[in-house]
Amino acid sequence: MTREQILRVKAEEDKIPLLVVGNKSDLEERRQVPVEEARSKAEEWGVQYVETSAKTRANVDKVFFDLMREIRTKKMSENKDKNGKKSSKNKKSFKERCCLL
């Protein structure tokens, strides 16, 4: 799935957690995308670029944890926005909702 497809599906979201990941970094001689091009694209999109290798386990954990960090940051930002805004619904106070018998 390309970035454009993701953005089309998630159009309501203003910032989607993404990373640009180059795989098979251990096969440098068979590289199809130059590092500079990948870094440039990641910079254009405002995301991090990481090269990985499953064979040597290079940066595999880093990519996972970096993406989880991005997701957590987004969730925390969304929660902060929701908690900072007053709800348009009339919520009853705690005393109005509870009744002692």
From TrEMBL:
A Gene Ontology biological process term: signal transduction
Amino acid composition bias (Basic and acidic residues), ranges on this chain: 75-84
GO terms of molecular function: GTP binding; GTPase activity
Gene Ontology CC terms, in alphabetical order: endomembrane system; membrane
Compartments it resides in: Endomembrane system
Keywords: GTP-binding, Nucleotide-binding
PROSITE patterns (UniProt xref): RAB (PS51419), RAS (PS51421)
Region (Disordered): 75-101
Primary location: membrane
Protein name in UniProt: cDNA FLJ54954, highly similar to Ras-related protein Ral-B
Organism: Homo sapiens (Human)
